[in-house]
Protein 1
Amino acid sequence: MSITVVGSLAYDAVKTPFGQRERMLGGAATHFALAASFFDTVRPVGPVGGDFADADLEVLRTRGTVTDDVEVIADGKTFFWAGEYGWDLNSRETLDTQLNVFETFVPKLSPAAQACDVLFLANIQPELQAQILDAVDGPAFTALDSMNLWIDIARDALVGVIERVDCLILNDAELRQLTGKPNLVAAAREILGWGPTAVVAKQGEYGAALITAASFFALPAFPLETVVDPTGAGDTFAGGFVGSVAQHLAGGVTDEVLCRAMAYGTALASFNVEEFGTERVTRLTADEIHERVSALHGFGRFTLQTPVLTGDRS
Amino acid sequence: MSITVVGSLAYDAVKTPFGQRERMLGGAATHFALAASFFDTVRPVGPVGGDFADADLEVLRTRGTVTDDVEVIADGKTFFWAGEYGWDLNSRETLDTQLNVFETFVPKLSPAAQACDVLFLANIQPELQAQILDAVDGPAFTALDSMNLWIDIARDALVGVIERVDCLILNDAELRQLTGKPNLVAAAREILGWGPTAVVAKQGEYGAALITAASFFALPAFPLETVVDPTGAGDTFAGGFVGSVAQHLAGGVTDEVLCRAMAYGTALASFNVEEFGTERVTRLTADEIHERVSALHGFGRFTLQTPVLTGDRS
């Protein structure tokens, strides 16, 4: 079994109230791979420049991730993003985006990447996502992320690829924007009508919600007293979520499988934000993940004990 | 057993994307009482003007609520609030606030209101909240709400009353503002150090979280495809939460009691937002509440099935 992820491999400059990094390993495919590598063999697909350090390629290879599909463009520069977060980390400003090698990126998948069991299309142009869907050999589960930019400038193409995947993973504000529906449940139901069988709404510090035809499921973000850098949290969530699904394909992607995957995504994301960039998840252990998933198991639990309400007596 | 609530009884003018009301029954004590009345006898304490309609007093008496402590100031006018909500109902603008009879309000509690088992101090001046704490005969459980205004202009007095109650119920942004801590868990822990044994963070459409010394608990808002008017949702939540606690005082206010109360608060609030003002909760039935609490029981549940993560093999 294997997972192919197509998306950015990047260098990030990040400033938060708790510190800053001038140039750290980042990118959606990177964060996704570091999380999903706990569950299965991951193959990231994406370009880097000649400036991409060997040490960072080694980080990408953590837990067996195969980097054969990372295309090194020797005379190009790696995608670069710079941003700064506000006081409570709920707002962030993009200070700089340099597409660099991504400007002319044409995805080429190796046979092994094409033969994946699970495909994650991280946030890139919808047209590229469509090309990749054309290129893979019918994976058992496909999930897709996107962003407000593509809703603004390439909505039709985006809707076209959403129609072709099993699961859409998007920020809740983007789900509203995409559908024009202010209500999250209504927005998710609309998208379920387009084709996907599951919609995951990422809600930042409030956690995430899953909506399928038959289920609503939600988990809070894992409660942390110290959050240092949210960069990559969404992609780390996706890596834990999609990775967990990949481990349970044999019985079909049931709601039970998806709900459990939400817990793994939530746990993985909670580690990501504890330190800058990839620092925490790179050295994360399986025991640490199990511990947080077990804790999450109790966070929404209460004992039902039907009281006699006044209305019952009438 | 009985619950005393001190807070506003009001008329509201509300405009949402789904309609508007020029003058509808509202106020924190009103919404609280309508919800809490399912659980116990409620005594709202607060002033109204000579313009307060008998029909609205009747609404307040729904499910046995005792209005002996509603002080009618014949030559005064009832508190009035006007507001308008944005597209996704997450933002609202206050267009008008007329304190009217609340400007000179001095709470006077009847012996029955003083002898309450549970006290809820809705959002009013902290000095008045302190006077009421002085006046009651040691209720078994006390909870308090407040708002950003009092954090801005009367923080010391507010902290003084928070130190004296069992439970603080506040919007999450206000918890951050009150403590100066951007992190919700850290903010709640700080407040637990002041005296309360429980902190409830209201998170609007994202639900609510409960933090005690030993527990973290969270529930999403009940998923609705149609939300019409969020006015009073927080006080309706408080009514369900505090009401449920009131029903289980005999065994002590354990974390189990508080977690279950979160579910009742969440369920009650979800009905409140389905229609304008008090319209939905006034005609709500106990069966409808039970049904939503049962559904909430499943929203954060997943089956633990420890997979073999890559890190486990090393």
Protein 2
Amino acid sequence: MHRHGDAVVKAVIGLDVGNTRITAAIVRASGEVLAMIRRPTDASGGANACYRQIEDMLGQLISTASERSIPISCVGVGFGGPVDYEGGRIMRSHHVSGWEDFPLRQLLREKFGLPVVLDNDANAGALGELLFGAAKRHRNVLYVNIGTGIGGAIISDGKLVRGENNFAGEIGHIIVVRDGPICGCGKLGCLEAVASGTGIGRRATELIQLGSIKTSLPKRSVTSKEVFEAALHGDELAMVVVDEAVEHLAHGLGIAITLLNPGIVIIGGGLSEAPEKLLLEPLRERVSKYVLDIALKGLEIVNAKLRYDAGVLGAAALAILEGGVNCD
Amino acid sequence: MHRHGDAVVKAVIGLDVGNTRITAAIVRASGEVLAMIRRPTDASGGANACYRQIEDMLGQLISTASERSIPISCVGVGFGGPVDYEGGRIMRSHHVSGWEDFPLRQLLREKFGLPVVLDNDANAGALGELLFGAAKRHRNVLYVNIGTGIGGAIISDGKLVRGENNFAGEIGHIIVVRDGPICGCGKLGCLEAVASGTGIGRRATELIQLGSIKTSLPKRSVTSKEVFEAALHGDELAMVVVDEAVEHLAHGLGIAITLLNPGIVIIGGGLSEAPEKLLLEPLRERVSKYVLDIALKGLEIVNAKLRYDAGVLGAAALAILEGGVNCD
């Protein structure tokens, strides 16, 4: 569809199912968003409540499309948790109960009579950047999403590297500190444990309790946002914490770059909104310590281009790129 | 060609250009080796001397094929160093001088009038295992070659992950010990520096000099082979060194498995000949500490199936799988 241009308006629906909010949008092949709905995730109601939200939101958008005579060719769904891509099923959510082995693709297909593609939000995010964002004109991409957790996706020669069970790209769980702090996954020293928003907040909180480094930060649990804010104003403890996190990120990215030789590394997620001079700039500089020189040549490390609507654009890209003939 | 069976004997030539020896063979699509020549690499003569050896060896095999009426459809070349795959040029050798930017594919094409495919030996080795060895029936493969150095290759959905400049797969240069021992590549703490044959020999030699652990090993530079031999007989120092190396390998493999979610990990190279109970068995056990649980499910970690003729079979697989229409 995107190959034939937009002479006739053809569009897909992108649906992003996150832990805190669900977003759905009608998106043209050009990336133009024609309509968007966003709602807080009804996490307390479990998967069934979320599913009802999804049905309702998609129903609304399909009505809108019909009223405006926009033909919808496919629905792409990016989900915030592991997905059985082949089977079109959610495997689980780490935040909302009841998603175990949930046949989301089949249910949506039957309900709306449209082809549906379902994947995790990291894969969708990477395809979004490939089609609409920072990775245009690239074939080999490492996409890293740094927020409360750290997710990732790999594109090799224009195609997602999925691995055996669609779990490839889990850069947040490569171990950079042997026997380091415990991670949500149960292992010790994962990149996510030491360099995610959660990890940064935890580390700062630890050091504040310890009391040996000067700080203006309050003596309670602090967030990574507070840490970056304080670091920006020269707070000593906050600068130490950010410095550690950047070193861990440089190490983790360096490992992935050495293994994958991407042409571009794209950093998305909440942390990519931190001031560039605190995160992206020192990261670019320090990553060379951890990358085989030949893999560094010509490499770009940039922030994601898609921001507020990254989730739905990623889901839309999934529909366009992986929806196959059904979406054409 | 391999898809059409062997009703008519069709074959390729596989050429493996290593640091210590050059091997060439006529190989059928079934993997049967019909003729093979092996010579020590004339390293002192530089790239030009090696090239003359290669021409001579290929000339002999082509005569043999002609005498026996075996049609040769393609020549696959696996080279022990970085290769510009698209351009068909050697980039350099770390052991033999004069290979910089050497147009090997073009020279061989012009000399013999046959299609030629050129790649590094790790990529060729992985394709060899995919077509003829341990990775048959697999689509997602991590191939690791542990010898004097550590090389690797990644197969995703049946295709090599090459990355932007054909440098993907360099698992030997992911950094597992931050600020660790210096590696041949110039970085500190690469997997190759601490877990290759060279790294193991160096570490044992260091500990022998230090003199604080009981050992039967002589007070001179020892090889990894001597270390494994001594460990097998219960030597305390040798067991410590092997134990450290296995832990580093478990960490390095664990990282790559978490990132790539392969269905099978294949260990080739000289070290894969070490007794299984010293290397492969503890590796299988300890890798779980470093792998996201979901990526471990169903994962096989095995020794390479191809041994003595792995190099030429890999080069032959390269010709068959990547030679394209020219080789059909």
